[in-house]
Amino acid sequence: YAVADWYDAEALLTIEERQVLARLREFLDREAGPLLADFWERGEFPEQLAQPLIGLNLMEPFEAPARGIYQGFRIFELARTDASLATWYTAQAGLFRTAIRVGASPEQQREWMPKVIDFSLKGVFSLTEPESGSDIAGGLATTAHRRSDGSWVLNGAKRWIGGAATADVLAVFARDVADGQVKAFLVDRKSDGVTLDKIHGKTSLRMMQNAHITLDGVRVPEAMRLHHVNSFRDVAAMLRAMRSDVAWIAAGIQAGAFEAALRYITERTQFGRPLGSFQLVQEKLARMLGNVTASLSLVVRLTEQQAKGIYRDQDSALAKMQTSLFMRDTVALAREVVGGNGITLASDVARFHADAEAVYSYEGTHDINALIIGRALTGESAFTR
Ligand code: FAD
């Protein structure tokens, strides 16, 4: 493991934090590793891992949250094993928890947060729509209509929502028809008018289940509205805080792919020599290690800044953009040095190679993150003409 963490960033953790991480790593190697290829091929999530993972106390109490670096390494460790496992975790610990942390009133937080943390209230973040991905701020078309009794009626559709089929509630973002502002609601997944359709045929992140959601006259009580979400600015604050999680995932995927490639090239021989003895293979290993090390350095520094309360859009956008670029390069190099076996699930690199594509696009594509940085550098927004 230390090979992928070349500059020993883990040394920034306490002994106790490292011990817990080691237990997580050991569980993932022993219990998750043998299941991954099969479940990936079948396009199913290994549900039997969910409860044992939750039992490893993956989230700290709201009043005493984990240090950012420790939380980052937890995500890194999951992604180093599998991108879907990391995404399953960040759907609850990142997306949904952030929706409650930023969007709920103090009273709502007191009620929901303990259940979010012990996973007894499982939720998903339902923002993207069939017709609006990158331009969701302007294009969000799901409507919320307030009735005379104070309750709300939602109509519209959501796309790509990760983990929706097994969630208790869907955090749905909708536009209030009265004031045109975006509001957020916790919708019981089993409510009348909610239809979930699994998105089939994915070639990336196949284990993670993504849903197309239709909302047809769905009634939601006012008590289930997130009282501190009053415009898209509040949603943007959530996105800004969560994007660093994806950068940690992009770093972890690279570590997993690099280590799998390293194992392979020491075992396989050609021309009577191990693959790892060839100069061209060594050059690719060095590039992969450079990418992983640069990615870890980026996310560690970003997380340190966030711990100080520095949460600028362009900072998390830069980390997500750059680690994703490194990730695409690293997984392609890993797949390359494994040769033909690099496109079969028998080698872990094939799974990392395929899964990297979803991570490259979700929570802000390369282009959108680049434009966020460009706007900060020039003062000019280039999103629209
Ligand atoms: P589009 O917005 O249609 O973009 C298509 C292409 O055009 C991209 O390359 C984009 O960069 C480019 N483009 C768009 N606008 C511009 C511009 N102004 N300038 C230059 N280029 C531009 N969403 C949720 O709400 N919750 C989830 O849980 C969730 N999970 C996801 C899981 C997976 C596996 C995937 C693939 C997506 C998930 N998403 C989720 C949605 C994800 O956030 C969107 O896919 C992403 O925001 C991009 O939107 P889009 O796919 O509609 O692409």
UniProtKB/TrEMBL annotation:
Q: Name one GO biological process term.
A: fatty acid beta-oxidation
- Acyl-CoA dehydrogenase/oxidase N-terminal domain residues: 16-118
Cofactor dependency = FAD
List the keywords (alphabetical). Answer: FAD, Flavoprotein, Oxidoreductase
Ranges for domain Acyl-CoA dehydrogenase/oxidase C-terminal come to 235-377
Domain Acyl-CoA oxidase/dehydrogenase middle residues, every copy: 125-218
Q: Which GO terms describe its molecular function?
A: acyl-CoA dehydrogenase activity; flavin adenine dinucleotide binding
Q: State whether keyword Oxidoreductase applies.
A: yes
Please give the Pfam families that the UniProt record associates with this protein: Acyl-CoA_dh_1, Acyl-CoA_dh_M, Acyl-CoA_dh_N
Protein family according to the UniProt entry: Belongs to the acyl-CoA dehydrogenase family.
- Would you tell me the protein name for this molecule? Putative glutaryl-CoA dehydrogenase
Source species of the chain:
Arthrobacter globiformis (strain ATCC 8010 / DSM 20124 / JCM 1332 / NBRC 12137 / NCIMB 8907 / NRRL B-2979 / 168)
Identify the gene encoding this protein: gcdH
